Amino acid sequence: MNRFEGLTKPSTLTAGSAFLLGGILDLVLLTVSDPFSEIVQTPLYAVRSVLLLVGGLLLVLALISVYERRAKKIGPFGFSAVIVAGAGTILISGLFWAQAFLYPTLGRVAPELLDGLVRPGSLSFGLLLTAAVFGVGWALVGIAMLRVRVYQFTPAALILLGGLVSLLPTNTLGQAVLGIGLVLLAFSPSYRKHEGPQRHGDVAPHPQQQP
Q1: Residue 193 CB: number of other CB atoms within 10 A?
Q2: C-alpha–C-alpha distance, residues 153 and 44, integer Å
Q3: pTM of the entire structure?
Q4: Key word Transmembrane present in the record (predicted)?
Q5: What integer best gives the mean pLDDT of the chain?
Q6: CA–CA separation, 130 vs 179, rounded Å?
């Protein structure tokens, strides 16, 4: 058992649950007709943002744990996918931090910025870059899981789909789909400690002879 073995299931399950709940709350907030600058000051938005921030931070640990467990089988393509997904997760965690702690203040002092009346080019570029790196990275992780076939098809496919949907900036529907995939992955049989029958050629220990 490597040092990440015990962290794989709890980190994946918690990150997935946080992304799923945060995505659901985000969809609920989309039904509110108030300006976005007012929505970001509500308790529901605060809960949503903190959930996604916690999910983003734990997602980094879950990504490392999942990769460490199957590093040899995932291979170079999987390693590249993990690097891109890790970079995207760090970027989106920074966005979630801003949404949790900075956006409520901007809603009071600069509402035109959040309501889209004024959108500096650097902010638009940053949002597009974050969505692109995060979405492409997790789509690649899903593809890598499907290629090596050591994970169940459904969670791997949902992780791939979640990455693709996450390519849409400022849309957390992709994170909700990704969250479902992570929750299912946490309960995947691949997390069992038993890795299957002994390899051919392994010599089983002889039972002790009775005196």
Answers
A1: 6
A2: 34
A3: 0.82
A4: yes
A5: 84
A6: 18
Contact 21, 65 (CB under 8 A): no
Provide the b/e sequence for 146-165 (b: ≥16 CB within 10 Å).
eebeebeeebbbbbbbbbbb
- The dihedral built from the CA positions of residue 72, 184, 48 and 7, taken in this order, carries a sign that is negative
Q: Which 8-state DSSP code applies to residue 99? A: I
Exposure string (b/e) for 105-120, b if CB count within 10 Å is 16 or more?
ebbeeebebbeeeeee
Token pair in block for residue 125: 């570029």
Residue 193, SS3 per DSSP: coil
**In this predicted structure, which of 55-59, 172-176, 179-183 has the lowest mean pLDDT?**
172-176
Helix axis angle, 153-165 relative to 173-186, nearest 10°?
160
Q: Tens digit of pLDDT for each residue in 82-129?
A: 999 999 999 999 999 999 999 999 999 989 888 876 667 788 899 899
Q: At what angle do helices 153-165 and 121-148 cross, to 10 degrees?
A: 160
Q: How many CA atoms lie within 13 A of 75 on its CB side?
A: 10
Note the pLDDT of residue 173.
85
> Which residue in this structure is represented by tokens 């900036």?
169
